[in-house]
Amino acid sequence: MIPIDDSPLVRDGKVLILAYDHGLEHGPADFTGLPESANPERTFEAATHPAVTSIAVQKGLAEAYYPSYEDSVDLLLKLNGTSNLWMGEPDTALNCSVEYAYDVGADSVGFTLYGGSNYEIEMAEEFRALQEQAREYELPVVMWSYPRGQGLKNDTDETTIAYAARLALELGADVAKVKYPGSKEAMEHAVRMAGKTKVVMSGGSKTTDREFLQSVKAAMDAGGRGLAVGRNVWQREDPTYILDALEQVIFEGASVDAALDE
Ligand code: FBP
Q1: Going residue by residue through the chain (262 aa), what tens digit of pLDDT does each one get?
Q2: Is 133 within the bounds of a domain?
Q3: Is residue 86 a part of any domain in this protein?
Q4: Ligand 1 site, residue 188, Cβ cutoff 6 A
Q5: Where is the active site (predicted)?
Q6: Is 176 helix (H, G, I), strand (E, B) or coil?
Q7: Which residue puts its alpha carbon closest to atom 12 of ligand 1?
Q8: How many other C-beta atoms are found inside a 10 Å radius of the C-beta of residue 217?
Q9: Contact between 133 and 103 (Cβ < 8 Å)
């Protein structure tokens, strides 16, 4: 584990990743509700908000758009990812090397691991190689730790999310991005299991401002270090409004009412 508190990914011990790899992971369907959300520049603009500690994108977006934003945005380059067209057991392709990510300007790297998939062994072996390489470049490593696969009945229950958090610690991730397990107590358990690995909550599909912020608040109160969020920001007409509220809840410890100015 490397000290990451001084890295661009972390501000005051907290993390707010704006994820925008959905064009690969989910496809254009995620953009239909708000057509302008398909334009990567719109999300790169949103990532200039001071609350955002990094934008997470795949190599193609990083190459094409990051050069215009490298002075105003910090980059988390996602090294693997798969399209929604893949219908098999959960698996994900390595799309970029650590060395290439570094050359493109990445400040940190991300990797999805589907624990419990029939392909877990291959993914864990790929993770080993890139985690060790990331250490050489002193790049923090964020694991999208998403247990799923044939044998897994519920990928967000307390036991599964605690295991996801622990997997990230055991395999050497600096930050574990996990789904919200449904309650503050369950999140506390996951945070305990993650030890020195920082746990951040995954945003999930778009919901109301209040519902979303309540889950973020519960995750923070449980010892979570922040959030990696996509749709709940850039599927909104006004990403700035929700980022202002997130800044208050995550970095200033504000209540949901205060953040919503109610
Ligand atoms: P959201 O906040 O929109 O859920 O984004 C977080 C994220 O992990 C993305 O990085 C990724 O594309 C997506 O969720 C994966 O979602 P799914 O659970 O459908 O695989």
Answers
A1: 788 999 999 999 999 999 999 999 999 999 999 999 999 999 999 999 999 999 999 999 999 999 999 999 999 999 999 999 999 999 999 999 999 999 999 999 999 999 999 999 999 999 999 999 999 999 999 999 999 998 888 889 999 999 999 999 999 999 999 999 999 999 999 999 999 999 999 999 999 999 999 999 999 999 999 999 999 999 999 999 999 999 999 999 999 999 998 7
A2: yes
A3: yes
A4: no
A5: 146, 177
A6: strand
A7: 22
A8: 19
A9: no
Quickly count: other Cβ atoms within 10 Å of residue 104's Cβ: 16
The reply to whether 7 falls in a domain is no
Here the CATH number for the domain that contains residue 47 is: 3.20.20.70
In a domain, 1, yes or no: no
Count up the domains in the chain and report the number.
Answer: 1
Name residues whose C-beta falls within 8 Å of residue 251's C-beta, 6 or more positions apart in sequence: 11, 12, 14, 16, 51
Find the 86 Cα to ligand 1 centroid distance in Å: 16
Contact of 152 with 161, CB cutoff 8 Å: no
Residue nearest to atom 15 of ligand 1 (CA): 25
Give CA–CA dist 112/123, Å, rounded: 8
146 counts as catalytic:
yes
From 14, 177, 179, 217, the catalytic residue = 177
Q: How many residues does the chain have?
A: 262
Containing structural domain, residue 60: 15-259
Asked if 85 and 93 touch (Cβ cutoff 8 Å), the reply is no
Q: Which residue, 160, 165, 226, is CA-closest to 197?
A: 165
Single out the residue of 139, 138, 131 nearest to residue 54, CA to CA.
139
